[in-house]
């Protein structure tokens, strides 16, 4: 006790704003449930496992710790207890996720380092300051829990501004309790009742081609009648009914829905719920990942354990992150940087005061957690895996999307990860594990004069379009479509087993990338006029690791966006040597520099092509969002605008009116943001265009550049330009032969919903990483990937 009193000055009473890490060690994945429990520093409130607490004492000289140990209570009748299905897309609240947690006995004691002298808690013999400090630590919400709760609780539906004074026509319409059908087609599901005139119409097309025929949306566009309720969601529990406001472009609450329904003779108390609401469908996607082929469901797969086979627990729509990190920590650069050449103790020694906020520390912690095998062991429910909450918090810091609990695009996260890791390793190419993923793209543009220009920039992935006309099973496809058309006429549906999907070779996708394409509105400095040029693209260097993204979202029939239901035949080994670009060739003449630049008129405020806007609006998108899509793709066409919309649906201001302020002058662009983009390897003029199009936001500007590859060649080309930084001279190069080492598959109708799974070639066999489930692959879905990772074959 005297030893504790001698160190009272090192004990702090936590304030409400203090972050208390009592759930997990900040340098490992040890928890109070681990063998040695968890030690909470009573000065910094950081948590440490038994193996690591001495490191903190050496670094901070804080000797007083609260030792927390949790041991699971025996539950003999646990298997007989029915599991509750979540009814709310939230966690830690009634009806939400996480209500089936087993119960634990918790013990506490005070421990004083370096001798690990222990004192019992609670005890009246302890100094009052210690008792008060420990009580507050025990009662406080942990740092992880606070963030978890804040991120997960779903937004409450707003009361529609159109509900209270909604006009309802006295047109004598009476809606029957059953037998509904769309007034304009034969659809009998996904039907919406317009609450103004009583019209029953089908809903929107869904990206995968399912859903309705857009008749309810088109009716609103013609009549401007604002509210509709989804038939099949109406029951005695009116709060569960799905009411949609077209002007507000969201699901809303109608406080007097009962009155509005009675106008059309609907007695809601007698109706039964037969369809899922929009929110329930989202919840269903989050709780039932029943995509059989990609997840190899129903296969008798062998669970795998040990170093390199540690699963990552889904934190709530975090599978995009888990899939990418499993692949990255299967590559030599990331294994070497954060595991083989850096110990946990070394990373902690050089970390900032709060290691939970240090990217290098959390990358090292994650690497050792995944690769050591310490946390990969069988349990009652299979492998428990590790929860990468601290890593997610630091890698997503200040990012509005990755810091949320919403599903994200795995490719966007991969690119974000590369950026963050490079920023954390500035100028040190030996430490930077991302070097092996970078390569130089070279674009060659030739105008009708015969003269050419070259442009180079760095990238770390290739996006490949899928040329369906190159399908290798055209005869089978034609036969299937004829059969399907005949069955449709008879009112029959094709079974899943009978569906024939196009099979496109990866070689055709690569050829489409490197093939020539027209560049309209190209300003030729040789002709002093705009013309149509031809652009070809190649790789100046070949990276150690080549990442390919398959562009599966395209425009379908009737200009409806959909996800391509297609197989990509991917060989185990590819050779892209033919895609190498060798720069200016003998006999080629470069376009002159700066000719007639002074004759160019000042750029006018961009105006959206109304034809593009109206077609997008007819599909059901917000009008202002359609305008932005047309402007940000330079009115290139409907497909380009649609692709832009699909990748910006989560922008917070996507549906807001376009600002009518005067166009900003050149000097209003933030120079720091401009230089940041230029440092990424983008041309300065393209960077300016991107910052203007994205309102100065660097993240969105970067995305704009990647989604507008034509921008670098559609601007005035003065001559051959090199936008590769001097700092990029270290980029690796070598053979164009690669072997497939991993792929990430996506299930769902959009990259921002559904589920991601990784398959990785480890120790000579393919392994599936499905969150915390790790097993030997039995039926490899190699033809269904979204991201493919190739490793160069050494000469």
Task: Record keyword descriptors for this entry.
23 helices, Herpes Virus-1, alpha+beta, Helicase, Ruva Protein, domain 3, 8-stranded mixed sheet, single chain, 795 residues, globular, 5-stranded antiparallel sheet
Describe this protein's structure.
It is a single chain. This protein has 795 residues and is an alpha+beta fold. Among the domains are: 1-79 and 102-155, Herpes Virus-1 (2-Layer Sandwich); 191-286, 2-Layer Sandwich (Herpes Virus-1), CATH 3.30.40; 603-660, Ubiquitin-associated (UBA) domain (Helicase, Ruva Protein, domain 3), CATH 1.10.8; 671-709, Helicase, Ruva Protein, domain 3 (Orthogonal Bundle). The chain is built from 23 helices and 27 strands. Strands 13, 17, 21, 23, 24, 25, 26 and 27 form an 8-stranded mixed β-sheet that branches. Strands 2-1-3-4-5 form a 5-stranded antiparallel β-sheet, with no helix packed on it. Strand 9 and strand 10 (250-252) form a beta hairpin. Helix 9 (319-328) packs across helix 14 (410-424) and helix 10 packs across helix 12 (359-371). The longest helix has 16 residues, at 474-489. It is globular and about 85 Å long. The chain starts with a helix and ends with a strand. The model is unreliable at 87-94, 282-291, 595-604, 661-667 and 713-719 (pLDDT under 50). One of its GO terms (biological process) is protein deubiquitination. InterPro entries: Papain-like_cys_pep_sf, Peptidase_C19_UCH, Ub_carboxyl-term_hydrolase, UBA, UBA-like_sf, Ubiquitinyl_hydrolase, UBP13_Znf-UBP_var, USP. It is an enzyme of class 3 (hydrolase).
């Amino acid at each position: 006790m005297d030893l504790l009193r001698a160190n009272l000055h090192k004990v702090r009473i936590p304030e409400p704003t203090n972050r208390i890490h009592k759930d997990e060690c900040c340098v490992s994945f040890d928890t109070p449930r681990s063998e040695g429990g968890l030690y909470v520093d009573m000065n910094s409130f950081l948590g440490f496992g038994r193996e690591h607490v001495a490191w903190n004492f050496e670094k901070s000289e804080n000797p007083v710790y609260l030792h927390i140990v949790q041991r699971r209570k025996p539950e003999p009748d646990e298997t007989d207890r029915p599991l509750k299905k979540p009814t709310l897309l939230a966690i830690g609240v009634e009806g939400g996720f996480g209500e089936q947690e087993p119960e634990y006995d918790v013990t506490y004691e005070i421990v004083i380092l370096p001798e690990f002298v222990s004192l019992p808690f609670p005890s009246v013999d302890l100094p009052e300051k210690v008792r008060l400090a420990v009580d507050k630590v025990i009662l406080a919400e942990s740092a992880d829990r606070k963030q978890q709760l804040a991120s997960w609780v779903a937004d409450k539906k707003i009361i529609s501004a159109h509900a209270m004074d909604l006009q309802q026509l006295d047109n004598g319409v009476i809606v029957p309790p059953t037998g509904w059908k769309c007034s304009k087609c034969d659809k009998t599901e996904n039907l919406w009742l317009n609450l103004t005139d009583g019209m029953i119409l089908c809903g929107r097309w869904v990206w995968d081609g399912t859903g309705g025929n857009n008749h309810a949306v088109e009716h609103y566009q013609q009549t401007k009648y604002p509210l509709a309720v989804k038939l099949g969601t109406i029951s005695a529990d009116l709060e569960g009914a799905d009411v949609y406001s077209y002007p507000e472009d969201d699901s809303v609450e109608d406080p007097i829905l009962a009155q509005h329904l009675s106008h059309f003779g609907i007695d809601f108390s007698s109706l039964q719920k037969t369809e899922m609401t929009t929110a329930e469908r989202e919840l269903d996607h989050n709780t039932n990942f029943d995509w059989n082929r990609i997840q190899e469901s129903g296969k008798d797969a062998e669970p795998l354990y040990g170093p390199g086979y540690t699963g990552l627990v889904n934190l709530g729509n975090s599978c995009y992150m888990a899939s990418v990190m499993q692949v990255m920590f299967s590559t030599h650069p990331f294994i070497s940087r954060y595991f083989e050449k850096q110990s946990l103790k070394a990373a902690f020694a050089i970390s900032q005061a709060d290691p939970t906020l240090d990217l290098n520390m959390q990358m090292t912690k994650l690497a050792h957690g995944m690769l050591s095998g310490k946390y990969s062991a069988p349990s009652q429910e299979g492998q428990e895996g590790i929860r990468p909450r601290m890593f997610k918090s630091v890698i997503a810091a200040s990012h509005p999307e990755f810091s949320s609990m919403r599903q994200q695009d795995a490719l966007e996260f991969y690119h974000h990860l590369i950026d963050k890791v490079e920023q954390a390793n500035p100028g040190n190419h030996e430490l930077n594990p991302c070097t092996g993923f970078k390569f130089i793209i070279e674009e060659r543009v030739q105008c009708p004069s015969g003269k050419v220009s070259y442009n180079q920039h760095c990238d770390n992935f290739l996006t490949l379009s899928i040329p369906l006309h190159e399908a290798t099973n055209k005869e089978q496809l034609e036969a299937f479509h004829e059969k399907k058309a005949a069955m449709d006429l008879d009112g029959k549906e094709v079974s899943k087993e009978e569906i024939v999907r196009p099979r496109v070779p990866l070689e055709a996708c690569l050829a489409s990338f490197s093939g020539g394409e027209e560049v309209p509105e190209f300003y030729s400095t040789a002709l002093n006029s705009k013309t149509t040029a031809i652009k070809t693209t190649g790789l100046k260097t070949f990276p150690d690791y080549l990442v390919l993204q398959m562009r599966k979202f395209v425009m379908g029939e009737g200009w409806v966006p959909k996800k391509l239901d297609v197989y990509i035949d991917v060989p185990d080994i590819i050779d892209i040597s033919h895609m190498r670009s060798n720069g200016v060739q003998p006999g080629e003449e470069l376009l002159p520099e700066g000719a007639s630049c002074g004759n160019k008129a000042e750029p006018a405020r961009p105006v959206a092509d109304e034809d593009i806007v109206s077609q997008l609006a007819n599909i059901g998108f917000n009008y202002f969002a359609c305008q932005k899509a047309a402007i940000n793709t330079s009115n290139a066409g409907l497909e380009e605008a649609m692709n832009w919309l699909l990748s910006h649906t989560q922008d917070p201001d996507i549906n807001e009116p376009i600002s009518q302020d005067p166009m900003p002058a050149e000097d209003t662009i933030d120079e720091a943001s401009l230089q940041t983009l230029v440092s990424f390897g983008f041309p300065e003029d393209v960077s300016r265009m991107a910052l203007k199009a994205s309102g100065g936001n660097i993240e969105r500007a970067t995305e704009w550049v990647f989604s507008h590859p034509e921008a670098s060649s559609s601007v005035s080309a003065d001559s051959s330009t090199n936008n590769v930084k001097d700092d990029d001279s270290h980029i690796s190069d070598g053979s164009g032969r690669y072997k497939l080492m991993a792929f990430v598959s996506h299930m769902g109708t959009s990259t921002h919903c559904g589920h991601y799974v990784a398959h990785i070639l480890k120790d000579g066999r393919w392994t599936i990483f499905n969150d915390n489930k790790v097993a030997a692959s039995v039926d490899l879905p190699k033809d269904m990937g979204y991201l493919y990772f190739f490793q160069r074959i050494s000469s």
